């Protein structure tokens, strides 16, 4: 793919490990239970692979110089860095949850400050305590971060929960970016073999969470909310026709003002779908201005060559450069 490069190449899906967060939760009631649930959801074979996989990638997850060298190899100019979803700790009580989020926000900001022209960051908020979400979002923004990363749900709270309304309002008011990135799938042991917990679980959780946002009318009430759905939004964008059919056919599916597919053009999606034909369909369904380059750096379920994956979709030059960086630049690099 040739042509002008008016904007930097921007990867909006890249992660960071923060040892200080794990030190803060170690030994607390609930931590062992959460680890046990994670083990049941993933199964022993996945856990045997995950430890060495993450261990080998610790330098890229913690050392800015190593990160920048890897970005250079990939042809990525700028990363939007978010904490590893393993740092959510949605089991934590209010006091510990606030500490976790403040440490994550400050740690991410400090990491990005070592290369401010190439790294921007997202922090965390405690979805399990909706009453703290606005305060911790403000804290993230005060650190110079672009917004926060959230999971697909928290225990007892779907994203359609009315208790999140103040959070959506504050995010919309401030222009904060929200990266929707699931961690763990509630199908639990049904997915505990062959890494189905990730390959099936992650796109399922994306689809469920986005459906809660759409059908609840949250995007009607907050039309300027800036949500980036990781993993291309999971199954929803390519199977949205079933949601549209339900909206027309059933009165109980009329929680939103318009056809569900119309809301795809109010959301953003990363390009990490692992299939050029799916990526083309995502661009068709959401619009070329709503898809952003994403790699899941540096984990093994990501792409080591996000630009190559984008090229393989054979998009038009305009769409290619929009996804490569122009869309993210418009979203993230405004003064």
TrEMBL record:
Coiled coil, from the record: none
Keywords from the named record: Lyase
Source taxon at top rank: Bacteria
Cross-referenced Gene3D superfamilies: Metal-dependent hydrolases
InterPro entries (UniProt xref): ACMSD, Amidohydro-rel, Metal_Hydrolase
Chain ranges of the Amidohydrolase-related domain: 10-332
Pfam family, one: Amidohydro_2
Signal peptide positions (record): none
Full protein name: Amidohydrolase family protein
Organism: Streptomyces vulcanius
Phylogenetic lineage: Bacteria, Bacillati, Actinomycetota, Actinomycetes, Kitasatosporales
């Amino acid at each position: 793919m040739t042509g002008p490069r008016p904007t930097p190449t921007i990867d909006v899906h890249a992660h960071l490990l923060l040892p200080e967060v794990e030190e803060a939760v170690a030994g607390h009631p609930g931590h062992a239970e959460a680890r046990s649930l994670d083990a049941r959801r993933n199964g022993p074979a996945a856990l045997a692979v995950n430890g060495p996989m993450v261990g080998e990638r610790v330098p890229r997850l913690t050392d800015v110089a190593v990160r920048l060298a890897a970005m250079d190899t990939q042809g990525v100019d700028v990363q939007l860095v978010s904490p590893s979803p393993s740092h959510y700790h949605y089991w934590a009580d209010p006091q510990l949850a606030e500490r976790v989020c403040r440490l994550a926000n400050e740690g991410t900001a400090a990491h990005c400050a070592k290369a401010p022209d190439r790294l921007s960051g997202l922090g965390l908020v405690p979805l399990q305590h909706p009453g703290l979400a606005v305060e911790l979002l403000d804290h993230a923004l005060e650190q110079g971060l672009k917004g926060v990363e959230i999971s697909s749900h928290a225990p007892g709270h779907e994203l359609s929960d009315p208790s999140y309304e103040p959070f959506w309002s504050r995010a919309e008011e401030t222009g904060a970016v929200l990266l929707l990135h699931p961690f763990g799938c509630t199908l639990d042991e049904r997915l505990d073999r062959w890494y189905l917990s990730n390959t099936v679980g992650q796109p399922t959780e994306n689809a469920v969470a986005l459906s809660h946002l759409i059908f609840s009318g949250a995007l009607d009430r907050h039309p300027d909310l800036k949500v980036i759905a990781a993993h291309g939004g999971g199954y929803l964008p390519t199977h949205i026709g079933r949601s549209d059919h339900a909206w027309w056919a059933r009165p109980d599916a009329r929680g939103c003002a318009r056809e569900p597919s119309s809301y795809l053009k109010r959301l953003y999606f990363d390009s990490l779908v692992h299939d050029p034909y799916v990526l083309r369909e995502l661009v068709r369904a959401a619009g070329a201005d709503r898809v952003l380059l994403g790699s899941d750096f540096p984990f093994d379920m990501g792409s080591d060559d996000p630009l190559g994956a984008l090229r393989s979709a054979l998009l038009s030059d305009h769409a290619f450069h929009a996804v490569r960086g122009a869309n993210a630049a418009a979203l993230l690099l405004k003064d």
